[in-house]
Amino acid sequence: HDPLSLWNNSRFPIWQFIDRIIDRGLLKSASEITTLGRKLANQMEKLYQRNVEVIYNGFEEIDWKKEAIAKNPKKEKILYYAGRFHEHRMEAVRLFIDWLAQNKKENVKFVLRSLGPKEANEELFKYAKEKNVADKIELLPPTDLKTVAKEEREADILLLFEDLKNTRRNFESTLPAKLMEYLAKEAQIVAIARGDSELGDILVETKRGYLVSNLSQLDTVLKSIFSGNFHPFQTNLIEKYSRKKQCEKLCRIFNYVYQHS
User: Which residue from 209, 228, 246, 239 is spatially nearest to 80, judged by alpha carbons?
Assistant: First the structure.
């Protein structure tokens, strides 16, 4: 279930009304209902008076002991992001560039593997040039998932960019799949997003990183991480979010439906 059908951002309220009528019709015949996050599940339960189970996208378990980590010869801090820049993420990206502009003496590099769109890449670099920090950004071409996973593991900080506006209800309950991908890596996660995002709840629970919503918070968190003040990686705190565990939960739901049908 996608949050957009609950919180349609169309300027025509009738479309949200129609979406919810369709949802109600579909859910009446459903034996069980699952969705991808706790906040979305809560919203659905309140609106439709049905129990909703959460099945997270999860992360693929990998034996990282077999994968060597390349040492960074430049000694600079690598802040990494690989993904697409949707319109709602651009304000968060600009906030990060503002931080780079205020901390030009920090020995950091923003390594970016952008999947576009081209217009977003151009907007990003135009803003970086205006702030005189374009030299702090390294734009790499799209590549395969194995290379991205290796680069994520070699980074010092993994960045997430999401919506910063509290006015759009659907992004409150949106959990990007990249969060799950990041959980299994050892680098600290810094998510730039609205303060009520479920991203923050999971980062606190797993002690894998921080949610920030403004420049002051971002500055405090990054400098704390640079100084070595952060929680160590703890496998037991992220285990429940593995695809194996999530698949086991989904199988239990299927078994229940089969036994009670």
Answer: 209
